[in-house]
Amino acid sequence: MTMKLFGTDGIRAAAGEFPLNTATTIAIGRVIGEKLGGNVLIGQDTRMSSPWILENIHKGFTHTPATLQDAGVIPTPAIAVLVKQLGYSGGVMISASHNPYQDNGIKVFGPDGTKLTDIEEAQLEKRIFELIGADVQTQKDTVPASAVAAENSTGWLERYQEILLSHFPNSDWLRGLRIVLDCANGAMSTIAPRLLTKLGADVVVTHASPNGTNINERCGAVHIDALRAAIGTVSADFGVAFDGDGDRSLFMSGSGRLIDGDAVLLLMARRLKRNRQLDPAIVVGTLMTNFSLERMLQAEGITLVRVAVGDRFVFEEMQRTGAPLGGEPSGHIIFSDFKLSGDGLLTTLKVAEAIATDRASFDDLTRDWIEAPQLLKNVRVREKVPLETLPAVQAKMTEIEHALKGRGRLVVRYSGTEPLLRVMIESDDAARNTRLMEELLGVIRDTLG
């Protein structure tokens, strides 16, 4: 059985293991070069394996007429926007986003700066398997230990900064704001402190010293307690934590209250509506978007449209419906004035703009936001067995959905990036969530072993 290479957000695996071993990454580079042609922009995050993967992709490109332009360490959204703005034939980002440093990944962008479609990814997969032998899938390679500096001296970060600034007043309009940054020892470690300082903010920087192995390590958007601890030691207007490649951000108010992507969507939808920029009155969320956001938007005459998890699917639905805003609870937020993908730094600027112009605290702007109790559990699996082939699991899910009708939701799905089955239950009763979760997890474990 041929395994699927592309998940929710590109190819992702342990570095050195299939499909990120030497032979396969060379084949991936060749296939990307064949697909995109022309001049392709490539960037990387701060993992020790990123330069090694870049070298292999470059070897693959030598078998094609395409050429690679190395942008160095740079956020994923910067690759997307630079490809579009500067007329590249496509882009590649080497990153495993929020995963630990042992993992890595490859994301591919078309000439318009958007991620490839499912059909295009399937075509790439087919060609990759044509180039590699069956034995390659069992090969493991030792990844050279090389630290990756956060600094980027080639000017690409400056170009990205200019594009971001073109959407805001080019002055010190953030003067007076103190912002705590958790850069996750990742791709935002240089650009985020530099840009916010340039705009006048008093910036307190944490976790911005990447060494190749500390990306996302007890910091960043996946370890939000690090930001809470930092906020507790200084007086700040708000804090923001990025993930390793900078395409998402989670926030914390000055009082230490977590402000996730759903709360940011509510804040931004209200601002757009007030400024008569929410046309049509649609916000795109995902299966994981909290039930409270749907109800609160509905009360203001705004429709929430749900899609599969992944900012690529959010973007595609925004294109289809013309929605000005979309995002995920995890912190991927997409604005129609960028129209590409989640961008943690752009979202930070939008949030800072709201606080500065409204002269209100983050707590004030989100005071009425109360999440419906939501319980999320991850079950590690050996194999992603199709759920529809598991009668006992299906029966229990049907029973739970009936119990939650009109009160909440059940979502059961496999992770697109990790060997996990994700189970989410939300309703107006936390105790009910816990009881139903225990019942369903018991059936899942009995069925999947």
* Count of extended strands: 18
Strand coverage percent: 15-25%
Count of DSSP H/I helices: 14
User: Which stretches are low in confidence, meaning pLDDT under 50 for 5 or more residues running?
Assistant: none
Total individual domains: 4
The CATH architecture classification of the largest domain is 3-Layer(aba) Sandwich
User: What is the CA-atom radius of gyration, in angstroms?
Assistant: 22 Å
CATH domain class of the largest domain: Alpha Beta
Q: Which secondary-structure class do the elements indicate?
A: alpha/beta
Q: Return the average pLDDT rounded to an integer.
A: 93
Q: What is the CATH third-level topology name of the largest domain?
A: Alpha-D-Glucose-1,6-Bisphosphate, Chain A, domain 3
Q: What is the strand arrangement across the widest sheet?
A: 1-2-6-5-3-4
Helix content estimate: 25-40%
As an assembly, this protein is single chain
CATH superfamily grouping of the largest domain: Alpha-D-Glucose-1,6-Bisphosphate, subunit A, domain 3
The end-to-end span amounts to 22 Å
Q: Largest beta sheet, briefly?
A: 6 strands, mixed
**Morphology:** globular
Summarize the SSE layout with pairings.
Layout: E1 6-7, E2 10-14, H1 22-36, E3 39-44, H2 50-61, E4 67-73, H3 76-86, E5 90-94, E6 103-109, H4 118-131, H5 156-165, E7 178-182, H6 191-198, E8 202-206, H7 225-233, E9 238-242, E10 249-253, E11 258-259, H8 261-274, E12 282-286, H9 291-299, E13 303-307, H10 311-321, E14 325-327, E15 333-335, H11 344-358, H12 362-365, E16 374-380, H13 391-404, E17 409-414, E18 420-426, H14 430-448
Parallel strand pairs: 3-4, 3-5, 7-8, 7-9, 12-13, 12-14
Antiparallel strand pairs: 1-2, 2-6, 5-6, 9-10, 10-11, 14-15, 16-18, 17-18
Helix pairs in contact: 1-2, 1-4, 13-14
